[in-house]
Write a sequence for this structure.
């Protein structure tokens, strides 16, 4: 689940935004077990998905 606001926030310029968006699309299309849900800004509350929700935190590179 991803809130819509980070997709609209302009950080890093157009190329960075394009690269990050393309990466999200690639992950969602290349991995059948991954579903990308974008919660719209208009949603005051959003119910959790009916399936399992896994929150992952990745260590910083380096």
């Amino acid at each position: 689940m991803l809130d819509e606001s980070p997709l609209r926030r302009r950080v890093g310029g157009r190329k960075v935004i394009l690269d990050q968006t393309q990466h999200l699309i690639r992950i969602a299309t290349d991995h059948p077990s991954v579903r990308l849900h974008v919660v719209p800004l208009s949603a005051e509350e959003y119910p959790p998905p009916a399936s399992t929700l896994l929150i992952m935190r990745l260590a910083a590179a380096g």
Notes: The beta strands are 2-3, 38-39. The CA atoms of residues 14 and 20 lie 10 Å apart. The chain has one domain: 1-62.
